[in-house]
Design goal:
The complex is a heterodimer of chains A (388) and B (153). With 388 residues, chain A is of the alpha/beta class. Chain A has 13 helices and eleven strands. In chain A, a hairpin with a 5-residue loop joins strand 10 and strand 11 (377-384). Chain B starts with 23 loop residues before the first helix and ends with a strand. Chain B has one domain.
């Protein structure tokens, strides 16, 4: 690949609240946009590219650009569900490499905890070509991931206790996050004794439902060099889509098998080099399958991999989701990708909570899994570095 | 399969399908208690869900053929929460992926079957639940049906 201009994450902001009953979704978009730009040391006037996904109301980016008063020459409304914001970072990096933009703003906001609508209009979903073949069976989001877990257990002998280890690690981290929705440390037994919501998944295998949001600012090297803030280089990126494949459904892999190797190859690193990983955690099974797909262990060995505190910071073999992740901290607008990138940035800046800060964290991975593992999944992987 | 069409409908909700040029033949067949799916005349793939293009070779030259209605459970879950309002009074319910003998894996429910005996690999056969919605506006048009499965034993 020819040398191209590099992209840096200069601003990252997570809304501190988890319940926001008194604000509109556009208002929350505005708050996180201002927060991320302030973190970078930039203003709305500096933004020349805007990215949003299905959580942005109305006409998406068109509505939000007008609401925020942005003046941009580049717009991207790519929607891959909860992984959208990692895809946006990738697309921003590409636009920066092409020399088209200097400052990209990416925002996410929603209020499902306070009863706000889910992302995407219902009319849009009900007109999908697959709708009449999937909507009449009572398969909620949980049901789809439960079938993925059931199949993984059948093929590889994975157990409920294996999945519980993932929640335990997340809860161990969340106790240090004063903004986390769930701050109590839980045990494997407590996970297994929690209410069965869709066999074989228990209540504590599922992520939280929260209001809130987050934003990122991605900038060119020229802009990064002028900022005082510690900017984080985007070293490698990947995105891929996996669907139902004409009926050859496969519940034990995601598109991370494509997005992961692409990101590692571009960055010139391997899974063994990663100091910290933010792994999308809509459910515990999402993490387990993703660890396998990204090559942190062999397919089917995820259960073995996560045992004995492997995911626990700071000294586990792969510290993950040190903010408490979607399982304990935050899953704003039912979309966990934004917060995955934000915590990876904190780790690389050395700004994670001291109890979970990975010592000398130089290389981090953030991964998003959007849509549903049971049907159509959008996977995106970022490899981020540390330069001061 | 003629036996299975007489199975008493369980109480699970149905809905009105979006009948279109992509899938009209499928829904017409459900009204007769059969599964018809498109097969690509170029590469021979049996295509689920029904549509107008072969997603393997992009041929739009498809023919329709009747499936046996028999299959095996690929995966399943006993759902107890996290479903839309119209489903809540029917919990727990069994959501499954069933692999048809002809190959495609279809999303469905397992009905009229003790959930405790369901396992991956179990043989199942098709049942059709009347949606209450006719397949066309023509007078006397029969109702479409939702494809579900039940244990063969």
């Amino acid at each position: 690949m020819t040398q191209r201009s590099r992209a840096f994450i200069a601003g990252a902001y997570e809304h501190p609240l988890r319940t926001i009953p008194d604000k509109t979704v556009p208002q929350i978009h505005a708050e996180v946009a201002i927060g991320a730009l302030a973190d970078a040391g930039l203003t709305m006037a500096d933004v020349d590219a805007y990215y949003s996904a299905g959580d942005a109301p109305g006409f998406g980016a068109l509505s939000m650009i007008d609401y925020l008063g942005l003046d941009v020459s580049h717009v991207d409304d790519t929607e891959t569900g909860g992984s959208s914001y990692l895809v946006h970072v990738r697309h921003a990096a590409e636009a920066i490499a092409a020399g088209n933009i200097d400052v990209a703003l990416i925002t996410l906001a929603g209020n499902p905890r306070s009863g706000g609508a889910g992302p995407g209009g219902s009319a849009r979903f009900s007109s999908a070509p697959e709708a009449s073949f999937e909507n009449f069976f009572g398969m909620g989001v949980i049901g789809g991931y439960a079938m993925a877990a059931q199949r993984h257990m059948h093929e590889f002998g994975t157990t409920g206790a294996d999945l519980a280890e993932i929640k335990v690690a997340a809860s161990t981290h969340a106790q240090h996050n004063p903004n986390a929705l769930l701050q109590d440390v839980v045990t494997v037994e407590q996970v297994l004794e929690s209410r069965m919501i869709s066999d074989p998944l228990h209540l504590l295998d599922a992520c939280v439902i929260t209001d809130g949001g987050g934003a990122l600012v991605v900038v060119s090297e020229a802009v990064a060099n002028d900022l005082e803030r510690h900017t984080i280089p985007v070293l490698g990126t990947g995105e891929a889509i996996k669907g139902t494949n004409a009926g050859r459904v496969d519940l034990t892999h995601t598109a991370a098998v494509v997005s992961g190797p692409a990101a590692f190859a571009e960055a010139g690193v391997t899974p063994a080099d990663i100091d910290y990983a933010s792994i999308y955690d809509s459910f515990t099974i999402t993490v387990l399958v993703t660890l396998e797909d990204l090559g942190f262990c062999e397919k089917g060995k995820g259960g073995e991999f996560v045992r004995d505190g492997a995911l626990q910071a700071p000294f586990g073999k792969l510290p993950f989701n040190t903010d408490g992740g979607g399982l304990c901290n935050n899953h704003p607008a039912n979309r966990g990708g934004m917060t995955k990138v934000i915590e990876a940035v904190r780790q690389l800046r050395g700004e994670a909570h001291p109890a979970v800060q990975v010592p000398d964290c130089k290389l981090a991975l953030a991964h998003g899994t959007g849509g549903s593992m049971a049907t159509r999944v959008g996977s995106s992987t970022l490899i981020l570095g540390r330069e001061v | 399969m003629s036996d299975t069409t007489t199975t008493a409908a369980s109480q699970l909700p149905t809905g009105e399908p979006n009948i279109s040029h992509d899938n009209r033949r499928y829904w017409e067949a459900t009204a007769e208690g059969r599964i018809e799916l498109p097969r690509c005349t170029a590469c021979d793939l049996v295509i689920w869900y029904p549509r107008s293009i072969c997603p393997d070779c992009q041929s739009m030259d498809l023919s329709w053929e009747t499936m046996s209605g028999n299959g095996t459970v690929y995966s399943y879950t006993i759902t107890r929460a996290g479903v839309g309002r119209k489903w809540r009074e029917h919990l727990p319910l069994v959501v499954a992926y069933v692999q048809l003998d002809e190959g495609p894996i279809v999303l469905t429910n397992i009905v009229d079957t003790d959930p405790s005996i369901i396992e991956i690999g179990m043989a199942v056969t098709a049942v059709f639940h009347d949606t209450g919605h006719p397949i066309s506006d023509e007078d006397g048009a029969p109702n479409s049906a939702i494809l579900r499965f039940t244990s063969v034993s």
